[in-house]
Amino acid sequence: MSGFVLRSLAACSLALFLAGCGGGPAVRTTPYANALPPSDTTTLNGVYEGTTDYRVGPQDQLEIAVFGVPDLTRTVRVNSNGEISLPLVGGIVAGGKTVPELEQLIAESLSKNYLQNPQVTVFVKEYASQRITLEGSFKRPGIYPLTGKTTLLQAMAIAGGFDQMAEPSKVVVFRQVQGKKMAAAFDVRAIRRGDAEDPLVYGDDIVVVGDAAGKSAYQNVMKALPLVGLFFLL
């Protein structure tokens, strides 16, 4: 995907989050004022759920188990062609299939010559198709995949860190929580000093870094949010 397309998608995503915030957001505290809740696509224990019709893609990590046959339990990575390799059945095309479809396909492959009515379970341990949007004064802004737990500092490193115009005290995370658009502001300098927690980021988060010149389109939002790492309703 070209850089232009990535930046266009990022801009569109951010525009949706900021819709209705023109002239400065009406910032109100929410029931989450004492915590940093995960997004709607992530459970409280950190497991990414996404949509119910999620389809497996390249670089996803899958844990596959067959009830009563522990030797067939495997953790595999989907290759760039969307394929995985399993004992007894060899190569299987996992890409593009939902988890139930993949479970059925593996069970059918095992039942042909090896097992009677195998009970197959597929668990997606890492969703490589999770995406985070990094916008503003990054060296390489764009939309990037997340694999596993990722903190705010780690996410910023994915985009090459800040550019010369970045203002480390003006970092805002936009997130969808229980169907509401929310935002939290962070001072990255405090995080790096160890004076503030380095929070986790989740799939579908939008991270925006303001610039020192104050010319960013997001300055009204950033000014309205206290730099305490708490979420507020937009």
Strand adjacency order, main sheet: 1-14-11-10-13-7-8
Question: What ranges have pLDDT less than 50 throughout 5 or more consecutive residues?
Answer: 1-35, 225-230
Order of helices and strands: HEEEEEHEEEEHEEHEEHE
Helix content: 10-25%
- Termini separation comes to 31 Å
- In total, the number of strands is 14
The structure class reads alpha+beta
How big is the Rg?
21 Å
What is the 3D shape?
elongated
Counted by DSSP, the helix tally is 5
Largest β sheet strand count, sense and barrel closure: 7 strands, mixed
Q: Please report which band the strand proportion falls in: under 5%, 5-15%, 15-25%, 25-35%, 35-45% or over 45%.
A: 25-35%
Overall mean confidence score, pLDDT: 75
Q: In words, what does this structure look like?
A:
The chain has 234 residues and is of the alpha+beta class. Helices cover 21% and strands 30% of the residues. The chain contains 5 helices and 14 strands. The strands form 4 sheets. The protein has a 7-stranded mixed sheet with strand order 1-14-11-10-13-7-8, sandwiched between helices. Strands 3-2-6 form a 3-stranded antiparallel sheet, covered by helices on one side. Strand 7 and strand 8 form a beta hairpin. The radius of gyration is 21 Å and the shape is elongated. The two termini are 31 Å apart. The relative contact order is 0.20. The N terminus is likely disordered.
